[in-house]
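Section handout 9: paired folding examples.
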Amino acid sequence: MRLALFQPDIPQNTGALIRLAACLGVPLDIIEPCGFLLDDKRLRRAGLDYHDKAELRRHSSWEAYHQHLNGRLLLLTTRGGTAYTDFDYERGDTLLLGRESAGVPDAVHDAATARLVIPLRPETRSLNVALAGAMALGEALRQTAGFPGGFTGKGTET
């Protein structure tokens, strides 16, 4: 399982996702350009001291990232057709999160194997990208028994 961020805009969200990836042992891809410098102090503050514990890979562009993609690409999007809890995840999947300000362009949307949505109340637009990533990653790790320490997510250890 992997997380990927498409041209993130907000350093605090990226820092929180770096921390999430480090704590859960999930590699994180950052597809540039970003809307901030990767040494931004807000990024460091949100990620605390987890940056050195995270498996982080930077890609200069969507094209550079897409060339090296292995496995299925699962896009979290408000335009998704399948609820993230109704999808059958596999260990080699990558969960892609779009830009906070604009999501992803149509070409990236079309390249996804599946487009997943977090069902929300109709009067709301979207969740914070770090929260959405944590929710979907938690479900994917639960389904694939991918949590650290042998936890299956079903209340028993393997």
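Moving on to protein 2 of 2.
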Amino acid sequence: MPEAKIAPSILASDFANLAHECKRVIKCGADWLHVDIMDGHFVPNLTIGAPVVTCLRGAIPQGESFFDCHMMVAEPERWVEDFAKAGGNLYCFHYEATKDPVALIKQIKAAGMKAGCAIKPATPADVVYPFVDQLDMVLVMTVEPGFGGQKFMHECMPKVQQLRSRYPDLDIEVDGGLGPATIGAAADAGANVIVAGTGVFLAKDPAEVIALLRQTVNAKQLPAA
């Protein structure tokens, strides 16, 4: 199982001070920044687009943080080049939003980004099996995509277990309701990329929360006694 990567979701940050907020959690130990892109079509909410990511990359140069772009958008093929130019590092599309995931993965890789595929809570894990060898990450949503601050769905953990059993070296991300109270279930199932929005950005001590998330995930890599 790969080591933990903690990816605070900027959806929970103060957007009036976005660059400062992102730098704050990076200093607290965040490995990635999870950038939630919502278009009001695939999900019933609007957030930010490539111009904001471009500005954020200007404030946080390549090498200082990895931008994990979660594309909750219809027609994800339309935005690949825009987000590559904006400074995205990983482009995570939703399986439910594309008719040709293999072609989209090739487009993402050709643009110079890593490719991830997200699945909604009702989508079975096996939909990614035909092309998982071409992916850098699979994201198992643990809430319905579209809004932050939702309750963690424990019933999604068997999908994480299923993926981890088949693909021990794959980055498996979980997103939605993650924090100190739920990290144990996610780590037990085999998730190693942890998206936490309110759990980190609204914490009294974000560094302490990030350290706890990391420690809990990495402890699962130790061989059984």
